[in-house]
Predict the structure.
Amino acid sequence: MARWGSTDFQQLKRLQKKMEKLQSGDFEKFCEEAAKELAARLLGKVIRRTPVDDGVLRRGWTVQTESQAQAGGNPKDVKAYAESLIVTKVGSMYEIEVINPVNYASYVEFGHRTANHAGWVNGRFMLTISEQELDAQAPKILEKKLVKFLGGVFDGD
């Protein structure tokens, strides 16, 4: 007859509690924090890439924040600003909308005709290029955050 060995059921119970913790709202919070970090990085990239000219276009980049929704204005602290971003969950995706409400932003982004309609001014693709850069960097950023998150769940007893 085969010997099956011994089992420590306390370890299985601890694993079950850790899995329940992972399944609870902690993962939802993790996803929101990851979305906020990616949006803050995108905002930083697009602002640096935007031509200055009179500065209106560069200052126009924004996202909806809790402070804007409630009282208006942006916090001075960058970390507080990133944490105040409003995250919308659509299906299984977390979204933060980065916008520039300046009326000529799309013309600078994608290009436009000259004033006399004789030529074409090429677009600067500030947001497009910034999104592509972030898409390339996102897996590493998210992997680091996920390793830290899972380490907190499974290392702590």
Notes: The helical segments are 9-23, 25-49, 56-60, 66-70, 78-83, 105-110, 126-155. The longest helix spans residues 126-155. Confidence is low (pLDDT under 50) at residues 70-75. The longest strand covers residues 88-90.
